[in-house]
Design a protein that fits this description.
Strand content: 15-25%
Order of helices and strands: HEHEEHEHEHEEHEEEEEHEEEEHEEEHH
Helix content: 25-40%
Largest sheet: 8 strands, mixed
Distance between the termini: 27 Å
Structural class: alpha/beta
Shape: globular
Number of helices: 10
Number of strands: 19
Length: 410
């Protein structure tokens, strides 16, 4: 949806030049553009469709700091702080709710993994904890708690409205003197010698000295044109919504069955949001909702929350996850290519929840400052050279420069 306050502006002629062009008008691109503009950079944010029309328009809206990797924990934790202050900076109501995130753990191996992660999260300032069956029942009476070996919970986690976040950041870009344009497709990054000199678009050429790629599931193609190999693949994810239920659901945490990836939480008015990742989903830019997914969903509901197995699904939609081989993001500045090309993509389902902190990080990388969070392990260089095998196969929670697969992915 285009902001009612700026429809003409955002579809108007392109500026002839900008210091930095951010490509991709989702939560990540909007956050990066806002933080750059706030820092005094002349920034232009370009979106091929409407703002939040890609993956940011159809996520589950979760915000959390529960991860198995310390850098992901830090990005999630800092983003929670920024989301909690969003009404002040940049200034918008994002409908933030914080009923917590509850991970249900089917077996002892899962409990051991999460015990290790919770200990690390606590060291990084996240008040997560392990729970037993009685505590699970109190938090979510729908859950068949006896089916699980344990659970992990953080009360500060929750969810927000992604479109409101994107619009809030875009408005902030414009207040700080930057520009936002929609319905502009970037087709190429133009270089001369060792410099980026322009981007070519469906509406003409814009002179610039730097480009930031925040193009989500669509990143691989444009990155290739900029001389980069960013291994991001699209996978369809679907969710459903119940109608208002009778009796109305109690307030429950964002609840996830770690074994099946089934998840659910409250949805207005008086219903529930339901979802699950289908392991048979192929790599494809497919965003058509397919009700053939419902039997898989209902089987998982029946095991986790039997009282909801017959709850009707009134509507649903499909969106795209932007997956990398190790389920970790790609954040950094390109090496071995002409000019300044930065990237923030491939977040594998946690881009929205990390967007505020990533905006700060990219701002600092562009300015030549050391970011408050060490994201060196998220460089795309990890997929090249002798460390690539370790990166994609071996979990690691110790070295910031080497990244193992992120375990807390749904």
């Amino acid at each position: 949806m285009t902001s009612a306050r700026h429809p003409a502006n955002r579809r108007g002629p392109l500026p002839a030049q900008a210091e930095v062009v951010v490509v991709g008008g989702g939560a990540l691109g909007a956050s990066v553009a806002f933080h750059l503009a706030e820092d005094g950079v002349d920034v232009l944010l370009l979106e091929a469709d409407e703002l939040a029309s890609g993956s940011s328009g159809k996520p589950i809206g979760g915000v959390r700091a529960q991860f198995s990797d310390p850098a992901n924990v830090d990005l999630g934790h800092r983003s929670l702080e920024l989301y909690e202050d969003f009404a002040n900076r940049p200034g918008a109501d994002i409908g933030l709710q914080q009923p917590g995130y509850l991970f249900l753990l089917p077996d002892a191996a899962d409990v051991a993994l999460f015990e290790e992660s919770v200990a690390m999260q606590n060291e990084h300032g996240v008040a997560s904890q392990m729970l037993g069956a009685d505590a699970v029942r109190r938090l979510n009476p729908y859950v068949d708690a006896d089916r699980y070996a344990g659970a992990a919970y953080a009360a500060r986690d929750g969810f927000a409205h992604p479109l409101a976040v994107v619009e809030g950041y875009a408005d902030g870009v414009e207040r700080h003197g930057g520009s936002v344009r929609t319905h502009v497709t970037v087709s190429d990054v133009e270089t001369r010698g060792d410099q980026v000199v322009a981007v070519r678009t469906s509406q003409g050429r814009v002179r610039t000295g730097a480009v930031v790629l925040c193009t989500g599931a669509w990143t691989r193609d444009l990155a290739t044109k900029a001389g980069l190999d960013l291994p991001v693949d699209p996978y369809r994810r679907q969710i459903g919504f119940t109608p208002p239920l009778d009796p109305a659901p109690p307030r429950i945490p964002f609840t996830i069955d770690y074994g099946t990836t089934f998840y659910f939480h409250n949805a207005e008015p008086g219903g529930l949001l339901l979802g699950i990742a289908d392991p048979a989903t192929p790599i494809a830019f497919e965003r058509t909702y397919d009700p053939g997914w419902l039997p898989l969903l209902r089987e998982a509901i029946g095991a986790c929350a039997p009282g909801l197995v017959d709850a009707p699904v009134a509507r649903g939609w499909a969106g795209l996850y932007e997956m990398t081989p190790d389920h970790n993001a790609l954040i950094g500045e390109a090496t071995g290519v002409p000019g300044r090309v930065l990237y923030a993509a491939g977040f594998s389902g946690h881009g929205f929840l990390q967007a505020p902190a990533v905006g700060e990080v990219v701002r600092d990388l562009y300015a030549g400052r050391t970011p408050r969070i060490d994201v060196s392990g998220f460089s795309a260089d990890r997929f090249a050279g002798p460390s690539a095998e370790q990166t994609t196969t071996s979990p690691s929670t110790t070295s910031p420069g080497r990244r193992g697969p992120e375990a807390n992915i749904i």
